[in-house]
Write a structure and sequence with these properties.
The chain is mainly α. It folds into two domains: 104 residues; 67 residues, no CATH class. Helix content is 78%, strand content 0%. Helix 8 runs antiparallel to helix 9.
């Protein structure tokens, strides 16, 4: 991750929000998502950015900065403590961060955090598992995009599961059978499945 690329973008965004407490508050809640990824470097780098730019000491930004840190308590508590201590942030501020760990933060972690982990799972699987990539592309992505109802979606999920069981219960040459899938063929197959 090239953090140097993001820093000027953050500087510009923060400057644009200066003086508007309502928008800063909303921005802080959105930026808290950065601490809810399964990848701790993202949240750690963002909190470090807040600390280096002294947002904890700026009255308009303090609450938003504390909100962001509350997300780190859920998965990266020790990293947060290290960062705070490296920047001379006291226990009083840490207790303020703990007080920001509300039901809203827990709900955000459940929804956003789960989505982020699911997306990361798909990226890893797509990168290294040609059989699963083929199955998801052929039986989920195209057909589900064409679904117009819950029964159609359920039917397509059932088809995906059956084909996945079939694919993983047979020992065959993975690259031969699952290495190629054209967009044209997939589109025709998806449209045909909805006509039946």
């Amino acid at each position: 991750m090239n953090w140097d690329f993001f820093t000027p973008l953050l500087d510009t965004s923060f400057e644009h929000l200066r003086g508007n407490r309502e928008r800063i508050f909303a921005f802080g809640k959105e930026m808290r998502c950065l601490t809810l990824f399964g990848e701790k470097r993202i949240g750690t780098k963002f909190v470090e950015y807040l600390l280096n730019a002294r947002y904890f000491h700026k009255p308009d930004w303090r609450s938003a900065a504390l909100d962001v840190c509350a997300g780190m308590l859920l998965g990266w508590r020790d990293e947060l403590l290290n960062l705070l201590s490296q920047h001379g942030i006291d226990d009083v501020t840490f207790r303020e961060i703990e007080s920001k760990l509300t039901q809203e933060v827990l709900d955000q972690e459940r929804t956003f955090g789960a989505r982020a982990r699911w997306n990361l799972f798909f990226v890893r699987v797509f990168a290294f598992n040609s059989r699963f990539r083929y199955l998801v592309t052929k039986y989920m992505l195209g057909p589900i995009a064409l679904c117009n109802s819950v029964p159609e979606w359920a039917h397509q999920m059932g088809t995906f599961l059956i084909e996945a069981i079939r694919a993983y219960s047979v020992a065959d040459d993975v690259n031969e059978r699952y290495g190629h899938l054209s967009v044209e063929k997939r589109t025709c197959d998806a449209e045909r499945s909805f006509k039946n």
